[in-house]
Amino acid sequence: MPEAQLRRPAEEIYADELAALAKGDDRARPANWKLSPQAVVTYLLGGKASDGTPISAKYVGNRRLIETAVATLATDRALMLLGLPGTAKSWVSEQLAAAISGSSQRLIQCTAGTDENQIRYGWNYALLLAKGPSREALVKTPLVRAMEEGTLLRLEELTRMGSDVQDTLITVLSEKTLPVPELDIAIDATRGFNVIATANNRDKGVNELSSALKRRFNVVVLPSPATLEEETRIVVKRVGEIGGNLSLPPIQPAEKELARIVTLFREIRDGKTLNGKTKLKTSTGTLSTAEAISVGVSAWAEAAHFGDGRIDANALATNIVGAVVKDPVQDSVALSEYLETVVRTREGWSDLYEAIREVI
Predict the structure, then answer these.
(1) Taking the model in full, what pTM does it have?
(2) What digits encode the pLDDT tens for the residues 244-269?
(3) Looking at domain 2-221, what is its CATH homologous superfamily?
(4) What is the number of other CB atoms lying within 10 angstroms of the CB of residue 356?
């Protein structure tokens, strides 16, 4: 049952919004698209459908970036969403696939262990041994299914795969066909097929894309939120959505405490206070917006189940330390310096100073 799902896909969560946009969308649509490019942008950035149905903003940021991403997918060029960890690359990828193809489930999570068979196709070895190579023995990957259906394929963290495996995509992206030499056939892509890949160059274990593969992508860089206010709005919105989806017990409004998380993360991440007057040691982690959201959700759960239904410094402390201190030596020093030079003397933050000091 849908109610039992831990995480529902975007096309289910926002089904009413997608239906409202599609109903009144009379503009030209590329082949196999569920919405016109203009309606896709409205779905991501928010607005109203033609019947007045409010459309929530899925992404808070530069409109031109989303327009470029959508326009790219309407061509034969693949789309690469590039940015630091936590800049909503995967979220935007999922929302684009849901709005354009009606499904975000054609997904390959790229890792160091991903091999060529997981990208191209595999074999049912029982049938292969019994009957030899045949279409019935062919195991279709999300790539093959997306090509046949004319839908979008999502490749998450493309640079995590080895370079030799990455290059198996070149023929698909350039020729829009996938040879199957064992059967002497080729699987041709249906109109509407395209690829959205996400990547970042900050984490360890990244494999650079070859020049040949890079040329097949149009790159859109998703930046970190420009201001404290913008990042705080994103964190408050996503914490509320995630907590609601997880059916966490209701708590008192926590905008003020979530703003403290964002402020702390931004200052340690940038290596200086917001006013620029004090330089700080940075941590080894990214302290991204996504991590601030995770801390907020965890603090909500702690406050709801073990506190008085209000996110306070005690609910924040352990979760903040867990997010900041990835390296027990370097990050502990950075956090301690921040506590002594910033938190201890900042008005209204003494409770957070004491709560974190009890943990580290």
Answers:
(1) 0.89
(2) 888 999 999 999 999 999 999 999 99
(3) P-loop containing nucleotide triphosphate hydrolases (3.40.50.300)
(4) 24
